[in-house]
Design brief:
The structure is a homodimer of 223-residue chains. The first copy, chain A, has 223 residues and is an alpha+beta fold. Chain A contains 7 helices and 12 strands. Chain A binds a DNA duplex (30 and 30 nucleotides) through helix 6.
DNA sequence: CGACTCCTTGAGCAGCTTCAATCGATGTGG
DNA sequence: CCACATCGATTGAAGCTGCTCAAGGAGTCG
């Protein structure tokens, strides 16, 4: 999950293709808090999130942390670069994953459709990452938070009459490390949105988006 | 070109593979200042920079700009997402490019090696982009500038005794938009490095790196 | 030489971070 | 069932980093 605002809804988060589904190993369960892999591990498998949410992080020597992405259902996780993982991956909630062999990237495991699908997924990831770069490089704190909420709402929000409800499985610190901010700044931005009536908070995890159009405006700096 | 610090030197920036080279169209020339494509254009071809340097940018409605990447020799440019370009691409100097059909992504244009090579290039781009995200999200201005110079030095610096020389084909404003800073901040960071004897400036475009080890320390926040 | 563009430097300001205290939800033991 | 401990979230106050605005310098091209 990166910060991409687009009009179209998310494609079916099911298996890559019917054929691809036939080739993959049975889904595995990753319990909340458990790591799927660590930075530096050799890449042996590639995963697609089936249900749940995972977090991809990278660290600097001195402990500064960046959340690279959140993996939501349908997202492909664990693309290798020179053979090893460059992020840690941890489950934010109990998560099930479809598993593919790494070799599927080289020759598609005899399944050209799978190969093409993986390439497509990689291209989508590049594009979404570009949005994330734009956000980190050029958007203000409040714009970043609005962007984050707008994307989650658009992709994963449940309709509730004219409103939408989203649940945030990650703590504020993960959101902060994703957006390049501190937890305090994220919290203040949430409060500001609440005070303006754009969102309502129901505990820290559940958010009612009252004015999603306004949220998208704010995400683009249209204030 | 993203901000990746790694020990190994850059692989041969020649054509993807011998076979792939045979399949591609003859190299084209893109004069300095000319656009290869614009944001929103339909993707018809994919390019590999042969000589020269290009700049990939993305804009926000209100004019804020982010340089997503610089394309140096060997880099693949123009990966599509839902069929169209999401960045502008402009040549910073006269540039030659190898050209591939977009369909090479779908079925390799009958060349499986090419298909694999493109996928590999996409995976590398994802990894480098992750470094860029880490930098924008968590590094200070001086660390970003040091990272930028360290990478350029490592990959493209010419040896000059114990020093290395690099030439920066892009103006300060492009560096600033790449690093998520302003030109003034970039300029100040350059001056600080000069005052500390880490680099020497020979005009604005040519830089002598006196202490590249120190530069890499600074890039990682080891000050 | 003069005009232009880009780069550098300075001064003041704003936004975000840091540090610190409080609040609120959750869970545990008495 | 309540008191209390714990952890995350929120809010406040002060400080710092990087931005804005402005002026001057350096290289380039007519």
């Amino acid at each position: 999950m990166y910060i991409t605002l687009s009009a179209e809804t998310r494609p079916d988060p099911g298996p890559l293709t019917h054929d691809a589904a036939n080739r993959m190993r049975p889904a595995t369960l990753l319990k909340q808090g458990r790591h799927l892999f660590h930075e530096g591990d050799e890449v042996e498998r590639i995963y697609q999130v089936k249900t749940g949410v995972v977090r991809l992080t990278r660290m600097l020597e001195d402990g500064r942390r960046q959340v690279i992405a959140f993996g939501y259902p349908g997202d492909i996780i664990g693309f290798p670069a020179d053979g090893c993982h460059h992020t840690d991956c941890e489950a934010l909630v109990d998560t099930t994953l479809n598993v593919f062999r790494r070799t599927a990237l080289d020759h598609g495991d005899g399944d050209p459709e799978l190969h093409v699908a993986l390439l497509k997924a990689a291209l989508k990831e590049i594009s979404e990452m570009q949005d994330h770069v734009m956000m980190l490089g050029r958007k203000s704190a409040s714009e970043r938070v609005a962007s984050f909420l707008a994307v989650i709402t658009q992709r994963y929000g449940e309709k509730m009459g004219s409103h939408r409800r989203i649940s945030l499985p990650m703590p504020r610190s993960d959101i902060a490390d994703f957006l390049g901010l501190t937890t305090e700044t994220v919290s203040r931005a949430f409060s500001a949105l609440r005070n303006e009536g754009v969102i309502a908070l129901n505990g820290a995890q559940t958010i009612i988006v009252m004015e999603s159009a306004r949220l998208q405006q704010l995400a683009l700096g249209d204030d």
